[in-house]
Amino acid sequence: SGIPFNPADAGCNFEEGLCNFYQDQKDSPGWSRVKVKRNVYRTGDHTTGLGHYLLANTKFTSQPGYIGRLYGPTLPGNLQFCLRFYYALYGFFKMSGTLAVYIFEENHMVQEKIWSVLDSSKGVWTQAEISFKKPMPCKVVFVSWCKSFWDCGLVALDDVSLSLGSCQAADLLPPNPGECTFEKDECMFTQKKRGRGSWHRSRGQTPTSYTGPKGDHTTGVGYYMYIEASNMVYGQRAYLVSRPLRGTSGKLCLTFFYHMYGAGTGLLSVYLKKEGDDEDIPLWRRTGEQSISWLRGLIEYESDRNYQIIFEAIRGVSIRSDTAIDDVLFQAGPCLEVEEIQFSSGYPDSLNEIEF
C-alpha cells in the first residue's frame, strides 16, 4: 500500500529552502531563491512582503530561447489535483509564454503544457490555479522562458500549493468563518459613517498615481478596502469596525495585509474595543510610507469579554496617501510567529486632536 500521499509535501513558500522542488543541473542558471530588501520601489515576496521567493532569468545569457525549469516532487497517478501558485513578471515586452506549467510523465518522458501566461500586469503578484489528472505518476514543472536576449525579463514564483480535487470544487468550500478577503462584500465589517472620508471596496489600481496598490493581495485581480486620500483632508479619519466577536480566556491572533505606499501616507492603527469599555486599546500602528508591496500585520491579543476590532486610517499630508487592507483573519490561540510591535508616530501630537 505504501505511504499515503500528502499534498502538503508538493507545495512550498520558499522561506526555508526549495522544499521538495529541484532543478536540472543542465539548465543553468535557472531559478534562484531571493529575498528583496524592502523599499518603495521593489515588491517583496507574496507570503508576507518580507520573505523569500523564487526568481528566474536573473543571470542573463546571450543564447536566445533561454529556459529555466523547476521540477516538483513525483505525484501519484489517477488522482485529481488542484495546483495553485502566485507569479509576478517584470521587464518583458511581450508577457505571453514567459511562464508555463508542464506535466512531466516520467514513464514516457513526455512533457505536456497545461498552462501558460497570456497577459499580466507588470510586477503584481497574481494567482493562477490549474486542475489536472494523469493516469501515471507525474511531476509539475515550472518553465520560465526568454524569447531572445533583448526581450528577457524576470519571472517571480511564490506560495505553490497542491490540494486533492478540482479547483472548482475547492472554491465551493465555505470561507473560514473568521476570514474576510473582501471578494463578495465587507464581510463582518461596518463603517462608523459612510461618505468621502470612509473606506471603499475596490479592485485594480487606485485612481491617484504613485500611491495605493496595483491589485489586491489575495489573487492580484480581486477586491480590497482602501481610503481615497484625494476625497479627504489632512488628518481626517476612516473607521472600519468588526461585528462583536466572542471573548475567550486564552490568546487570540489577528493577521491581515496592509498596503502603505505614497509620499504623503498617514497612519494605520488597529484598536481593541472591549464590551462595556469607553476607551479603545491600541494594538498596532504604522506611520508613513512602508513599501510598494503588501505587507503582513500580525497581532496577538487577549479579551475575556466580547469585543470588536477597529481599523483606523488617517489621511496624510498629500493626496498620495491611499492606505489599503486585505485578507483579514481572526484565529483562536497564540500567533505562530511574532512581529515586533511598532508604536512609532512621526506625527505631531496636534494631529491626534483633529476629529472629523
TrEMBL record:
Q: Which residues form the signal peptide?
A: none
What Pfam families does this protein's entry cite? MAM (PF00629)
Q: Name one GO cellular component term.
A: membrane
Provide the transmembrane region boundaries: none
MAM domain location: 10-169, 178-337
Q: Which InterPro entries match?
A: ConA-like_dom_sf, MAM_dom, MAM_domain-containing
Q: Could you identify this protein by its name?
A: MAMC2 protein
The primary gene name is Mamdc2
